Amino acid sequence: MAINFALALNKPHRDNHKNWTIQQGANLKKLSDRFFTKDNNGVIIKKELDNFPFQGVDFAALEKKQVSAVKSLCGEKYGFIDFEPDWRFVVGLGGASVYETSITLHHIYGIPYIPATSIKGVVRSWYLLDNYYDKKQEMEGYAIQEDEVFCRTFGCPKDLKVGDKTFKSILKHKGESSEFEGNIIFFDAFPLTAPKLKLDIMTPHYQPYYSDNEGKKPPADYYSPTPIPFLTVEKTVFRMYFGVKKEANKEFVTTTRSWLEKALNEKGIGAKTAVGYGYQKVEKIEKERPKEPTSDNFEPQEGAELTVRVEQLSGGVPLAVLPKKMDYRKIDKAPSDIKVGDKVKVKCRMNAKGKFDYFIFISKET
Fold it and tell me: Domain of 310?
């Protein structure tokens, strides 16, 4: 008998299969009561949680259905990345739940999955931090106002107010700033096989301090720790599909793959990334990473890094060229002390058509 894990976790019901025990009444209040019991010695005994079989879910059929949905919207202009957490990860930890914590589960299949909005949000956030970190709270405004690639990839509003400033979209329609729907489409990421669930514990030490709205209680060490269980996923591969609208440039697919790889590797996805959850398994990134570019094989793509020589200055702005190219391009965000002959590490910025536009300064080579 197949059991929907999402229903079993969150909904009390009368399904008492011989291999599944649903506890009733007040015992439903805690996640540990649902999947753990204690013997007379107070030892926690694992029950149905570990190695939950997810019977009734045909993961191969689900993958086939996902590919069909991707092609219906993007044709052949799509790609994917297989995400496997380096340790554990959880999406939706702070979501609404009958417990103190939550996890995002598909309402039909009952399996953990990564919503498309989460994937897009991670890539978008990584892009802003990577390119506009110095703008702090105004980074999104500057991206909308100055960055055509950002607007055409992720979409942007007609204008955005941040504090006292109003930023207008760089994209125009009949001479006026215009809103734009992004060209990239992200899709929900599903596991390729039955996901491996793992119950984890967080232990806040200063709960009275955090819950004190009047500010009278200090974060003192004499408070008792409060263990809070939460569900995570480990040792599971999720396939992340992305594509572009049929009328858009296919180069966006290559660019998005590069951004997504870097976002998962550098920023992570889901909750508790600050303490190591949600990062891409390093071995997978290394296996798929292209060879270090040289002057003989370098092909520019968004974010690709290389070392160039400053060939000349134009109005104080350093200029350099791509290997085996003769057209000069500016090095944006370079410090004022850069001079002709200096070797600098830069990354490439592509335009909305997927063509190389200019360099962005990273560091000066010594």
Answer: 305-364
